[in-house]
Design brief:
Strand content: 25-35%
Number of helices: 5
Shape: globular
Structural class: mainly beta
Largest sheet: 16 strands, mixed
Helix content: under 10%
Oligomer: single chain
């Protein structure tokens, strides 16, 4: 059964299907509207740095054919074939977009969808309609993005400026050229030599389902003889394709980068792990474009770096970056996408604006299409319109908001106040609801949004700034063997959502070993799977003399390889 997404929802593709040879179908229509559906292959900076990975009607495939435009079929207005294990490493995101060709607005579109099909079976679908949009003329429907593994996100955000604004957001330009005249199929054209027989016995692994549930967006045109279908087309009997699209708009150019991720084709089981990535800050080797087989040395199927991200898993959380050796937290990049109404930033190479605006451009709001966005090291933004659930934040932490947002007191209840006072883990919270964006900060501390996907993390209440209301949280006791009856407490967060952790200074993420000790006033967070006990350094012989080291009580961490702790250069 296909998993249905809502705008802002994300999931690992490996949770949807074990295959890597995927069919992506887009169905979008509207009265009197004409659409161009494209795929942008973006690099790690979310820029189109190689225009060979802008896949559209005039460039139907990437150099190594990891992304191919298939055309209208099986009830879809447009369809693509995506082979994940062949996408070059420089390409870190595939953004599937729809732009209006001519007059109109996205608020006029009829109910449509973007879907993923694997092995002839639909595994994911994001349905949308004109009620989700207003005056946009270009929208980002869905993204495949690489974050330790390939993932899918339902975006549903766009631009009033249409294709021009979309290209500038991805770092590209519009090349004003005459549109190529569409080639009409000739009656009685013979099938090409590489095409299979017209009566295919079964759909390929990535093909659309034989009986597509979605109706065709438009009545079928007058039948005309067509060339034999390609091997990746849906089997006979699928919904007939809609009428051919009118002449395409001018050619769009823009840049992107990539490198191969190899696995047996056809959606085989998860391939063997790749060698560990280069340390943070070291650039990786990039193979020449178009290279397919054999793969260049050092490239293989992507593997989650050690330790992998996510709290509760044996790895550092995504908010703290991925780094094999202990070290400082790397700066996070802005998430994918741009919401309606958000500033589009300054394109690379654009002329500097003179005057005050030019001097302040570097401090403009960071574009984003995600629910949580780190604006800078000390400021984070939450978009309440994405995800559909309120945000809980420390009282007084709001520094700016846009839109219709309501702030209310979030009480802990009588028992919650008793527990909070007794354990020192009481959080004075406010509840943020509505449709708008809220900016959070506190005392110029450094902020780190951490995404949980069903896992858990332990964080002291003192270090929590804000989090999604859908997360479960409770007070957790830390047993103490070193002092009689001694114990400490912390907060444990679990579920699917984001928590924003604050630190004084740049934290360090360290692996847990049997001899790992941390000052209880400096530790910020740790993986929930770690065993934590209070360890005392009090000794009668040592303390019978004047003087004290000031390091009498520490926390000892134990756990399987991959567990971690996060420590800040500051003692509360």
């Amino acid at each position: 059964m296909a998993r249905e997404f809502q705008r802002g929802h994300k999931a690992r593709i490996s949770d949807l299907t074990a295959g890597t040879d995927l069919y992506v179908g887009v169905q979008i229509s509207g009265p009197g509207l004409t659409f161009d559906i494209s795929c942008f292959g973006l690099d790690a900076e979310e820029r189109l740095s190689d225009d060979r990975y802008f896949i559209f009607y005039n460039q139907p495939k990437s150099p190594e054919e990891s992304i191919q435009l298939l055309g209208a079929q099986a009830g879809d207005s447009e369809s693509f074939r995506v082979t994940l294990d062949r996408i070059p490493q420089q390409i870190r995101k595939l953004s599937f977009t729809a732009t209006l060709d001519g007059a109109g607005q996205m608020s006029q579109v009829a109910p449509g969808y973007i879907r993923i099909v694997a092995g002839g079976e639909e595994v994911a679908r994001y349905p949308f309609s004109g009620s989700e949009f207003s005056t946009e003329r270009a929208v980002m429907l869905g993204d495949f993005y690489f974050k330790d593994v390939w993932r899918f996100a339902a975006v549903g955000q766009g631009f009033d400026g249409g294709l021009d604004a979309l290209l500038r957001n991805f770092g590209g330009e519009v090349a004003e050229e005459e549109p190529a005249a569409p080639q009409q199929p000739q009656a009685g054209a013979a099938a090409p030599g590489f095409a299979p027989p017209a009566q295919a016995s079964a759909p390929p692994a990535f093909g659309a389902p034989a009986g597509g549930p979605a109706p065709a967006p438009a009545p079928a045109p007058v039948p005309t003889p067509q060339p034999a279908v390609q091997g990746f087309a849906p089997p006979p009997g699928a919904t007939p394709p809609p009428a051919p699209a009118p002449p395409a708009p001018p050619v769009h150019t823009a840049p992107t980068i990539v490198a191969p991720l190899h696995t047996p084709p056809g959606g085989s089981p998860v391939p063997p792990p790749a060698p560990a990535p280069a340390p943070y800050g070291q650039p990786g080797h990039q193979p020449p474009y178009g290279q397919t087989a054999p793969p260049p040395p050092g490239y293989s199927q992507p593997q989650a770096p050690a330790p992998p991200p996510g709290y509760g898993q044996p790895a550092p959380p995504p908010g703290y970056g991925q780094q094999p050796p202990p070290g400082p937290l790397p700066h996070q990049h802005a998430p994918y996408g741009v919401p309606q109404g958000a500033p589009q930033g300054v394109p690379q190479g654009a002329p500097q604006t003179p005057g005050v605006l030019g001097a302040l451009q570097q401090f403009r709001e960071t574009p984003t299409g995600q629910r949580w966005t780190q604006q800078n090291k000390k400021l984070v933004r939450a978009d309440l319109g994405i995800g559909g659930q309120p945000v809980l934040a420390r009282q007084g932490s709001m520094v700016l908001y846009q839109g219709k947002v309501d702030f209310s007191y979030k009480g802990a209840g009588f028992s919650g106040r008793i527990v909070g006072n007794a354990t020192g883990q009481e959080m004075q919270l406010m509840r943020c609801t509505g449709q708008g964006q809220v900016f959070f900060a506190e005392n110029s501390t450094m902020l780190h949004p951490i995404e949980l996907q069903g896992d858990a993390v332990c964080v002291s209440a003192e270090n929590v700034l804000a989090f999604d209301e859908g997360l479960q949280y409770e007070v957790r006791r830390i047993e103490g063997h070193g002092i009689p009856g001694g114990a400490l407490f912390t907060m444990q967060f679990q579920g699917t959502g984001t928590i924003v952790v604050k630190t004084h200074g740049v934290p360090v993420v360290l692996p847990v070993t049997p001899t790992t000790f941390a000052d209880c006033n400096a530790v910020v967070a740790w993986s929930a799977a770690s065993q934590v006990v209070v360890s005392s350094q009090v000794r009668m012989r040592r303390n019978s003399y004047p003087g004290d080291t000031g390091e009498s009580v520490n926390l000892q961490f134990r756990g399987a390889p991959g567990n971690f702790i996060v420590v800040q250069p500051y003692e509360i």
